[in-house]
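Example noted here:
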Amino acid sequence: MSDKATKATQKAWNLYKKFHDKDPRHGSVIKVIMPKSDEALEVGEFFGIAYIADKQLYFHKFGKRNRPLVFVSSDGKQIYIFKGKYRFTERGFIG
């Protein structure tokens, strides 16, 4: 990790390392730049999320009070996840 890394980059790097038990590969930690303007449509709530990390399948079911909202961009090509009472830790999603 470079001395020039921001605090946010360092936090992301450390979380990746704790979750995967290894350093992130180049490109695993990125700076996110949102589009300047776009309209998004709320389409519902996430019941759960399934994902593959290091060839292992994970599924997290969100509690009814913890569910994040699902929005899609005006062109329908981008998903946005907002709100919800969850967090991501070295154990995966909690909430």
